[in-house]
Amino acid sequence: DQQVKQNSPSLSVQEGRISILNCDYTNSMFDYFLWYKKYPAEGPTFLISISSIKDKNEDGRFTVFLNKSAKHLSLHIVPSQPGDSAVYFCAASNRGGGSEKLVFGKGTKLTVNP
Amino acid sequence: GAGVSQSPSNKVTEKGKDVELRCDPISGHTALYWYRQSLGQGLEFLIYFQGNSAPDKSGLPSDRFSAERTGGSVSTLTIQRTQQEDSAVYLCASSKPRPEQFFGPGTRLTVL
Fold it and tell me: How many CA atoms lie within 13 A of A103 on its CB side?
């Protein structure tokens, strides 16, 4: 039973446009959410995170939105750049329950075309 | 600064053999995690060490898998009697007492 779902295996956007990556979760105990970016043959790189007490967190071109009632979060990248092409993983944890382990989605492969 | 390092980067073994995978966390990070990523899948939690506390082993898929962390630093993940379904990329991560985990490059394990 997948607790974190990324329903789009791939996404293709034009350089300069907005990329929107989506993530849904089923476990209402999750209280911290993270996005990681992964290039081939490398480990995942932390991108941005959000606590469940917030509904938005912004860092430069990256913004994460959290809708707790819908158990949905999204990552917006604007403007998208070719170097953003990678696999993006959504992850969640139940920190309030004393667990730091991350539960990951299967990832969305983003391609930004020049 | 030095990130998380893992060795070997690639390991090919025969079914039934034991393997050991090593992780050197970032200096000063108190928590260490092991995950694995099978083909086409997300990262799957295996085990988590935090300071001197008992490790959270809830993600280990079978008793063929074990891990230890010596001196609160280096960790070794051991897989005994490897099976073909153990083939995956094994990723180690470390963190301070914060939720953001920093990953190593992984060890690609292939069991023939």
Answer: 21
Note whether A92 contacts B: Cβ–Cβ < 8 A: no
Read off the DSSP letter of residue B56.
B
Task: Tell me the pLDDT tens digit for each residue of B62-85.
Answer: 999 999 998 878 999 999 999 999
Contact assignment for B40 to A106 by CB distance below 8 Å: yes
Domain range for B23: 5-102
Tens of pLDDT, residue by residue over A72-83, are 999 999 999 999
- Domain of A97, in residue numbers: 4-113
Q: How many domains does chain A have?
A: 1
Q: How many CB pairs below 8 Å do chains A and B form together?
A: 59
- Quote the number of domains for chain B: 1
CATH number at residue B49: 2.60.40.10
* Angle of CA points A76, A82, A85, to nearest 5°: 65
Which chain B residue is nearest to residue A34, measuring alpha carbons?
B100
